[in-house]
Amino acid sequence: PKEIGDAVNKRVVDAGMFWTHYVIGKHPAAGLFSSPPGAAGLGYDQDILLAWYYWGEGQKLHEEFYHDIVNLNVKPFIFTPDGPECLGWFKEKVETLDEFKKLRWRVSSGLAQDVYKEMGATPVSMAGEEIMPSIEKGVLDAGEWINPSTDIKMGFYDVCKYLCLQGLHQADTLAMIIINDDAWNELPKDIQTMIDVSIKAGYLETMTFNILDNAEALHKLRTEHGVTVFPAPPGYEEEFTKAVSTVMAKLDAEYPFFKKVRDSQRAFAEKLVPYWTEVHRLYAKMGAATFEE
User: Fold this and answer.
1) Distance, CA of 136 to CA of 159 (rounded, Å)
2) How far is residue 206's CA from residue 170's CA, in Å, rounded to a whole number?
3) What whole-number distance in Å separates Cα of residue 67 and Cα of residue 75?
4) DSSP label at residue 37
5) Distances from the Cα of 225 to the Cα of 84, 92, 131, 228, angstroms
6) Which of 7, 17, 42, 193 has the maximum number of C-beta atoms within 10 A of its C-beta?
7) pTM of this structure
8) For residue 270, with 0-12 CB atoms within 10 Å meaning exposed, 13-18 middle and 19 or more buried, which class applies?
9) Phi, psi (deg, nearest 5) at residue 290
């Protein structure tokens, strides 16, 4: 999967499905576009990240990132949301933050691992197909992959009966389609417009389908596979947010383009987060009241 960017750049293929954070080894700003840990310390969710992309400076900065920062001859399009991702699967319920920090726990590499290390946790980088066998053998104590609808297909419930949904390391996850610039420019304008509109329509389909798909998977995990869902340990959100701020500040100081993107996201978030948070507080209260029993 991580070779797709270079393959599209060299036009081995004309286009591919991608996550910008796959090129985080080239520049850390990659993580700000598709998978900012803890919303890059700015408090937004997946919807605000997408709003910034289309109605703020996101799309312009995203293209600048590919063309001028990592030198890939590609045009990016956001086509599906994939978050929020779970904190992970555990053999036992995690009661305290200190207990969580001691666990050898697989989490996606990049900025997320930097933040967890800053917290004093013990993250491990590992390919998805290796996670469950490693937990079985005791190489790992716990692990995360994506969300209920994908994790149920991996069979995590066979080795772990405790699931925490409240991960902050990939609370916002946006997947991309990247198209080789030359291939894109060869297309007639009407075909370009059709592709652009189709990708945006695909986002809406995926967003609404994922709500259903994950809810059904979670219900099945609970009722058919004996999985217990538990909240993140007390203090997790506060310590994670503090660690995000520390890591982001260091990267701001070291990488001017990283700071440029985060400054743009911050200016956008300052307007939207207070409103959006208050609206979702209403939804959370309404849902809790309706299904309290």
Assistant:
1) 6
2) 18
3) 9
4) G
5) 22, 15, 19, 9
6) 42
7) 0.93
8) exposed
9) -70, -40
